[in-house]
Design goal:
The protein is of the alpha+beta class. It has one domain. β3 and β4 form a beta hairpin. The longest helix is centred in the middle third of the chain and has 20 residues. The protein is built from 5 helices and 10 strands; from the N terminus they run ββααββββαββββαα. The chain is globular. α4 packs across α5.
């Protein structure tokens, strides 16, 4: 595990996180291909990532399309709840087009590209623009752009403080940060990195798990593994704004 703490202000992403949720259509695919941001998958890579997300997380025709994309084009794929898995799965698609600045001595076993994942309960209002509903999506887009803005890198066990004054992300939650973990797919399996090409170009998939301030502090003072040991094994990766604070 590579313990690392990053801090990022949310101010710079105000204009970047605007999305519209709709069913993907051929015209939208054409517009996406014609509007190329600074860092972009090739058409072949885009299709490969899309197919892999469906394979690992489930089928979806609903995508949060980003309206402004000056660096990466970061859409949000939304896999709807099913009877077997009654929760939403939200996966970024486009973040992995950017090659992160991974230190040379770690490049043999840390992916320099990544997409990010969160699970939300089935009652979550994804159509709402209120911050108490939108903050998980803002968190996804913030993390997706962090390596670009900071010229840095992320991998599992890294944590990110998401508010400057350690305040909560929204009025309905006490979370103010998150930690990256290995992502879990539709069959309970760990989602392995996707190989995009023949010469080592891989995209990792990381789950974002929100933390309370005390949990973040504990991880900083101890370790990711010790924090995980404190948490209840029955807690799963679905975001629960009422879950227990394990370090309070």
């Amino acid at each position: 595990m590579f313990c690392k703490r990053l801090f990022i202000s949310l101010l710079f992403i105000t204009a970047l996180v605007t999305t519209t949720y709709t069913q993907t259509t051929p015209s939208m695919e054409k517009e996406r291909k014609e509007t190329v941001p600074q860092y972009a998958y090739s058409e072949k890579e885009w299709d490969k990532v899309s197919d892999y997300i469906e394979q690992q997380y489930g089928k979806s025709d609903i995508v949060g399309h980003e309206m402004v994309s000056p660096d990466i084009h970061c859409d949000i794929v939304i896999v709807p709840p099913t009877e077997e898995q009654p929760y939403y799965k939200l996966i970024t698609m486009g973040a992995g087009a950017y090659k992160m600045n991974v230190p040379k001595d770690l490049r043999s076993y840390v992916c320099d590209r990544a997409e990010y994942v969160i699970f939300l309960p089935k009652h979550w209002n994804l159509q709402s623009s209120k911050e108490e509903d939108y903050w998980p999506i803002r968190m996804l887009k913030t993390i997706a752009r962090l390596p670009i803005r900071a010229e840095d890198w992320l991998c599992d066990s890294h944590d990110v403080q998401l508010t400057e004054d350690e305040s909560p992300l929204a009025e309905n939650t006490g979370f103010n940060s998150c930690v990256l973990m290995s992502s879990i797919g539709k069959n309970g399996q760990e989602v392995k990195p996707l190989k995009l090409g023949l010469i080592g170009k891989k995209v990792a998939f990381y789950q974002l798990y929100p933390l309370y301030p005390e949990e973040l502090q504990f991880k900083m003072e101890h370790s990711f593994d010790e924090l995980m040991d404190k948490m209840d094994a029955e807690d799963n990766l679905i975001i629960n704004i009422h879950r227990k604070n394990y370090c309070k």
